[in-house]
Amino acid sequence: MRRTIVTATMLLGLTSCAGTPDPGYNTVSGGATGAATGAAIGCVVTIPVGCAPGAALGAIVGGASGGTLGLASTTPPPVATYPAGGAVASYPYTAPSPYSAPSAYPAPPPPSYSALPPE
After folding, report:
1. How far apart are CA 19 and CA 30, in angstroms?
2. Which of 7, 10, 38, 43 could, after both became Cys, cross-link 55 (CB 3.0–4.6 A)?
3. Which residues of 13-46 are buried (b: 16+ CB within 10 A; e: fewer)?
4. Are 32 and 59 in contact (CB under 8 A)?
5. What pLDDT, on the 0 to 100 scale, is given for residue 103?
6. CA 31-62-50 angle, 5° bins
7. Is 33 domain-assigned?
8. What pLDDT, in 10s, does the model give residues 10-47?
9. 116 within domain boundaries
């Protein structure tokens, strides 16, 4: 009995680990797998008392944790790649610039000392 439950749980887990970029699909499949696993474990653990309460609690806990893990396993969208191009500003005709910087700048004006108080 336990071997069958473990095998079924592993098969459910493998089918839900598709790693798709769809967060909705991953959340639902992870939640379903977690709920099935939790119900199976809860049923096996509480067989002497009764299978239903353990299965219900296991399904709630397993579904919540499986859904969260399914959402967390969502692969990010692919990065956009662009073909390599030429230079950013490659023009067929490049004329020299008409602007030329002056060779020497004039000296700054002398400070005005008339505003200072006498010593």
Report:
1. 11
2. 43
3. beebeeeeeeeeebbbbbbbbbbbbbbbbbbbeb
4. no
5. 67
6. 130
7. yes
8. 555 555 555 678 888 888 888 898 888 888 888 888 88
9. no
Q: How many domains does the chain have?
A: 1
Quote the domain boundaries for residue 55: 2-72
Q: Can you read off the two tokens belonging to residue 10?
A: 């592993």
CA 43 to chain centre: 36
Question: Looking at the predicted structure, is the pLDDT value of residue 88 above 70?
Answer: no
Q: Which two tokens stand for residue 36?
A: 């099935």
Instruction: Indicate the residue type of 11.
Output: L
Distance CA 49, CA 3 (A): 21
Q: How far apart are CA 16 and CA 29, in angstroms?
A: 5
Assigned domain for 94 exists: no
Can you give the pTM of this predicted structure?
0.52
Q: Which residues contact 112 (CB under 8 A, 6 or more apart)?
A: none
State both tokens at 72. Answer: 């967390």
Side-chain half-sphere of 98: how many Cα atoms within 13 Å?
0
How far apart, in whole angstroms, are the C-alpha atoms of residue 65 and residue 101? 69
Query: Quick one: tokens of 69?
Result: 């893990």
